[in-house]
Specification:
alpha+beta; Neutral Protease, domain 2; 42% helix; globular
């Protein structure tokens, strides 16, 4: 049964406080909860997913048979509910609630994990103050952590000890966290703008604390930035972060006790790439920024998810722009949006940034809710400006600190803070699914901007003419702007999640030469994607009068395309980071998004053909350029050094396998080595890598991504071999995502008969262990409507038994039923 926004009802009570006690043990943990309810005006529902058993249930000290629903006479003043449950962390393979990761116990409660720990009103609008007592064997669990401030700790009999944590701030159950285990500790501190000293504690597996140093530095930067840019100060005496090896997400913002996937927290210059460091910097900031946008002001219900996630992604993007440079960071975010979110938005699983119904809320932690949600906030920022946005944020916090709210409260704060600007139609961005499309053209001295889709949300477009910029807002079907000067304008639509099309195809070439850097990048992408489309014989044939000139047409287009790449290569004015972005070849998903039906064989053939032809024609220029790029050390994380390595990697992507194999052994940084290893696809290099890193899960996951994503040779035999090896573990999400997740985006081999059989078989196994991870794998089939009829038939036949089975999880069923219209 689906949950629907229209059916939401407020909790008819207040939960004043909860006292928790955990008797920690890997095999069997006993959890006690004492809850005090007041202002009761209806039934109290205790959510409980039966992953253990109830040992005791009391209401006001009277022992009763457990019931999820508690009904009393209206307007009861006060009620105390006590419940004791027994749960089994070691058996919890879904990694939701309390579970075992490596040799520690850890929680993950967003969205609905707390109900797997103890019966509780597990909904985001029920906010209360938590006090948590943890009791455990001191040798097995020397570190006992939870939210808030540590108020008491000490030793007990029989080798046990305890810790009591009290969080002074109200929060919903999804923000509760607990960790117990033997952990290494890296300490730091931060002095807030008001002069308070905050202890910063980073916990890792034994002997790994040193690898959290970059993350600690990143947190200090983020705390300072949030004070300076948004005026927001941290509010507890301690901020704790824990790295775990098995985690469904990237990280979790639990109040004062963040839990991190180790891949997004730990770094080592001998193992980590620039991408790893930048991800750590960004994710650390994201989780910290949630302290205000998500924790202090939280959600009324899960339909409001983008309120915290879209807003916080936008804030972490601003942080990265300020730290790493606006243009390159903005281009990275645009590229991610186009690759993942545009694909999602054109699929059967398309949804608005604020869904109105769901079967399983875990399925809506999507690129749409996060990344498109951030772009919608960016559009708002573009319309009202930085000062208007900051006024709105200030009012939002003044009105709603300590509350669980809706998108409407956020928008109302923005509207009330900017009464001179019309934002009456901005809410449409939250309601409409799909990617808006517009067309831009010049006619009789005017710029014309027309909508090509039925979307009605307001679209800001920056227009530059002779160095002057202004923002036009498309509110209706079309917009005309009179050109007062004789010049060719350039356009920037990057502040909005839309597809913009220029009627005059030559305009992209003009923007490539004369536009701002972001416009140059966008035009480069359009030119190369158009070439990739038109080089496919089945598409080119439709444009020609006969087949006789087909070969010549393709040859000429191929030559003109590689000359564009040559011009970009030899451009001397580009800064290295931006140069790398310009040389980056379009993602295959960007081609698919332009097609109604996909010929996979042709698309991949042309995709590789252009890259091979470019190197073949201009190998001397490529090699000379490559050798001239300054060598840097991985320990140098300046923007200049990262830019030089990015530029070298962009060039390596064009090298033949044999040349990549040759240079691999002389490369000095892991950033460069990983790219060369991918291009080389060389067994000797793989063997060397595995010999060095076979005991490191995160490094093995990177190797799996290379194997699963290989498109020049059939990776299926190698994947089958890995699945049977000791390197692979179905219970570690990073490994599953590394191997099967990368193969799920390798559409060339995924949608072969053997590829479909392998993937569906493994999908069923994963679904029986961890439905959250499995449902993400299901999204690999989002391009199903665009496949050829033969591939559709193969896939539908193979997936039908799983889709119709009684054992399929709600997570996977929701995604697959949308795709296959069950």
């Amino acid at each position: 049964m689906k949950n629907r926004l229209e059916n939401f009802q407020e909790a008819p009570y207040k939960l004043d406080f909860v006292n928790l006690e955990f008797q920690l043990d890997f095999e069997k943990t006993v959890v006690s909860a004492e809850m005090n309810f007041s202002e009761i005006d209806g039934e109290i529902v205790l959510n409980w997913e039966k992953h253990g058993k109830i040992l005791e249930f009391k209401i006001d000290d009277e022992v009763l048979q457990f019931s999820k629903k508690i009904e009393f006479e209206p307007h009861r003043t006060n009620l105390r509910v006590s419940v004791k449950a027994e749960i089994y962390p070691e058996k919890n393979t879904e990694l939701s609630g309390l579970y075992k990761s490596g040799e520690i116990l850890v929680t993950q409660n967003e969205a609905e994990g707390f109900r797997r720990i103890v019966p509780f009103p597990d909904r985001p609008d029920v906010m209360t103050k938590f006090t948590t007592k943890i009791v455990a064997d001191k040798k097995e669990f020397p570190n006992l952590l939870s939210n808030g401030n540590l108020v008491e700790s000490g030793d007990l009999e029989n080798g046990k000890h305890f810790a009591i944590w009290r969080d002074p701030h109200k929060k919903p159950a999804y923000l509760f966290a607990l960790v117990g285990g033997d952990l290494d500790l890296l300490k730091g501190e931060f002095v807030t703008k008001s002069g308070r000293k905050v202890e910063l504690h980073f916990y890792t597996d034994p002997n790994r604390a040193k690898d959290a140093k970059f993350a600690l530095d990143s947190l200090q930067k983020a705390m300072k930035w949030d004070e300076e840019r948004f005026g927001l100060e941290y509010d507890l005496d301690i901020y704790q972060v824990v790295a775990v090896s098995s985690f469904n997400m990237g990280a979790m913002e639990n109040k004062g006790l963040n839990i991190f996937n180790s891949a997004y927290l730990l770094s080592d210059s001998e193992k980590s790439t620039d991408g790893d460091y930048l991800n750590i910097e960004s994710v650390i900031a994201h989780e910290y920024f949630h302290n205000w946008t998500g924790n202090r002001v939280t959600l009324r219900d899960w339909f409001q998810l983008t309120l915290k996630e879209g807003l916080t992604v936008f804030r972490d993007q601003l942080f990265s722009e300020d730290i790493r440079g606006f243009e390159v960071q903005r281009i990275s975010d645009i590229a991610r949006l186009h690759k993942f979110q545009f694909t999602e938005d054109s699929s059967p699983n398309s949804h608005p940034i604020q869904p109105t119904e769901y079967l399983e809320i875990d399925n809506f932690y999507t690129f749409t809710v996060y990344e498109k949600g951030a772009e919608v906030i960016r559009s708002l920022h573009k319309i009202i400006g930085e000062s208007g946005f900051q006024r709105g944020m200030k009012l939002y916090f003044e009105r709603h600190d300590g509350q669980a709210v809706r998108v409407e409260e956020f928008l109302n704060a923005m509207i009330d803070s900017n009464p001179e600007i019309d934002l009456s139609d901005f809410h449409l961005w939250y309601r409409e699914k799909g990617t808006p499309k517009i067309e831009i053209y010049s006619l009789k001295g005017k710029i014309h901007i027309d909508r090509l889709s039925e979307h009605k949300a307001p679209i800001p477009i920056e227009i530059s003419l002779n160095g002057k910029s202004e923002t036009a807002i498309l509110r209706s079907k079309s917009l005309e702007i009179e050109l007062k000067e004789k010049a060719v304008p350039t356009f920037d639509t990057s502040s909005t999640p839309i597809i913009s099309k220029f009627r005059d195809s030559e305009f992209h070439h003009f923007q490539l030469k004369h536009g701002k850097n972001i416009s140059k990048y966008a035009s480069k992408e359009e030119i190369l994607v158009d070439a990739l489309l038109n080089l496919q014989p089945t598409i080119a044939r439709k444009k020609l009068e006969n087949d006789e000139i087909l070969g010549k047409y393709i040859e000429n287009l191929l030559i003109s395309t590689i000359y564009i790449l040559k011009d970009i290569l030899l451009e001397e004015k580009f800064e290295s980071s931006f140069h790398a972005k310009m040389l980056a070849f379009p993602e295959i998903e960007n081609i698919f998004s332009k097609l109604e039906s996909i010929n996979l064989e042709e698309t991949y053939l042309i995709y590789e053909k252009i890259k091979e032809s470019f190197y073949s024609a201009f190998s001397d220029e490529v090699e000379n350029f490559l050798s001239a790029i300054p060598q840097t050390e991985q320990t140098n994380l300046s923007n200049e050094a990262i830019g030089n390595r990015a530029l070298k990697c962009a060039i390596i992507e064009y090298l033949p396998k044999s040349r990549a194999s040759e240079i691999y052994w002389n490369l000095q940084t892991m950033t460069e080595k990983m790219v060369a290893m991918k291009v080389a696809n060389n067994s000797e290099i793989f063997a060397d890598y595995l010999q060095k890193f076979s005991d490191d899960t995160d490094m093995i996951s990177k190797y799996f991504r290379i194997v699963g994503g290989e498109i020049r040779e059939n990776p299926i035999p190698k994947i089958e071999e890995i699945l049977k090896s000791e390197l692979f573990d179905y219970k570690v999400p990073n490994l599953v995502r590394g191997l099967l997740g990368s193969f799920g985006r390798n559409y060339k081999y995924l949608f072969t008969e053997n590829g479909i059989k392998l993937f569906v078989r493994e999908l069923q196994k994963v679904d029986g262990i961890n439905p959250n991870v499995a449902s993400r794998l299901c999204e690999s089939f989002n391009i199903y409507p665009k496949l050829s009829s033969g591939k559709k038939e193969l896939l539908k036949n193979e997936i039908s038994d799983f889709l119709n089975s009684n054992t399929i999880s709600k997570n996977s069923f929701e995604i697959l039923s949308n795709i296959f219209k069950k």
